[in-house]
Design a protein that fits this description.
binds adenosine-5'-diphosphate; 7-stranded mixed beta sheet; 13 strands; binds magnesium ion; 6-stranded mixed beta sheet; about 350 residues; alpha+beta
């Protein structure tokens, strides 16, 4: 009998792979309240619960040092982890930082990276409490774990959405993706002609969204102050479409998003036009927005409408109605997830 051919990683995709690798791990400790499958794990910790989440960034895959200042990279590496803690409606408190360094990095370069990590720690009031430092043959890797806390009853999961809930999103979408397109364009122009200076003026907003994103601290704060009841929540790291599908799948519901309600910054629209892209596609599938996507019962409409920077973009429907987007013309089209997949082929 011929040996079974090894399965290429790209055949499964990130989520199926995680599922296949972890499905045979049985829960042994009652302190594990929620393990794999949300933005952060939830662990019993006395009066409050502890939240744990981790993310790794690889040079050449997640960042390009040609156009990413090390200070910004350090800042962003922290932010993407804090974002996952806020997405559970919890407060991040500590991080650990592990780095793999190749010999091309100087002490000063690593200090630059850490100045960004420190800036994020100061701004978000986080303590750096440990990590690991190792050698690498192939470039820089940064792995950060964030630890947060919340009262058990305040924690929000992806699985809490209910039929008729309003679907809400903070900030605007698609900007970070277009910021990346501008950086990539200038990089390739520079490669062909090193005497040309990169043209980055006029793109300040989208570049900042790509290089120096912020996490949802303010959103969580205003939802708390306005006593908004939240049913489900997730952060937008892989694109709106992929994240709303996570909420719908986990909550066993459907959704209807409205194209004209999706918040997109004017600079995002302008840059999308320049690249001959549809701004909506960038907002749906772009990723790296680190905004919060959440659902609230209809009764919260007035409270939500009174909060600056939050848009109501649709509603939760019965599962049988599917997951759809209503176009500007009023047609309903099925939503697909084409967002970032950590294992896509390069
Ligand atoms: P996010 O985009 O919010 O950071 P991910 O999509 O990276 O979340 O991960 C989805 C879930 O799978 C999370 O609960 C995460 O902790 C878990 N997970 C990811 N990779 C692994 C792995 N290699 N082993 C175990 N659990 C994993
Ligand atoms: Mg997340």
């Amino acid at each position: 009998m011929p040996a079974k051919k090894p399965t290429p990683l790209s055949e499964l995709g990130e989520f199926s792979l995680i599922n296949r690798l972890t499905k045979d791990f049985l829960k042994k400790n009652p302190s594990t309240i929620f393990g794999i499958g949300d933005d952060a794990a939830v662990i019993e910790g006395g009066e409050k619960c502890m939240l744990v989440t981790t993310d790794m960034l690889m040079e050449g895959i997640h960042f390009d040092l040609v156009y990413t200042p090390l200070k910004h990279l350090g800042y962003k590496a922290v932010i993407i982890n804090l974002s996952d803690v806020y997405a559970m409606n919890a407060q991040p408190q500590q991080i650990t930082v592990s780095i793999a360094l190749s010999s091309k990095f100087s002490v000063e370069a690593v200090e630059e990276l850490y100045s960004g990590i420190r800036l994020a720690c100061e701004k978000y009031e986080i303590d750096l409490v440990g990590g690991d430092t190792v050698s690498s043959l192939t470039g820089l890797a940064i792995s950060i774990t964030a630890i947060g806390e919340a009262m058990k009853e305040n924690i929000k999961y992806r699985n809490g959405a209910k039929v008729n809930d309003l679907i809400c999103v903070s900030g605007d979408l698609g900007a970070a993706y277009l910021g990346l397109q501008v950086l990539e364009r200038e990089k390739s122009i520079y490669k062909d002609n090193p005497s040309l200076q990169p043209v980055l003026s006029g793109y300040d907003y989208i570049l900042e969204r790509q290089l120096k994103p912020e996490a949802g601290k303010m959103t969580i704060q205003s939802l708390y102050e306005n006593k908004v009841m939240i049913h489900s929540m997730i952060d937008i790291s892989d694109g709106l479409s992929s994240e709303i599908l996570h909420i719908c799948e986990n909550s066993k519901v459907g959704c209807r998003l409205y194209h004209e309600k999706i918040p997109i910054h004017p600079q995002t629209i302008q840059t999308a036009d320049e690249f001959n892209m549809e701004p909506l596609i960038c907002a749906l599938h772009g990723g790296e927005d680190y905004e919060l996507l959440f659902t609230v019962p209809l009764s919260e409409y007035d409270k939500i409408s009174s909060i600056d920077g939050i848009s109501i973009i649709g509603n939760i429907t019965e599962k049988e109605d599917g997951t759809n987007l209503v176009t500007k013309e009023g047609n309903e089209v099925p939503l697909t997830a084409q967002g970032w997949d950590g294992l896509k082929k390069y």
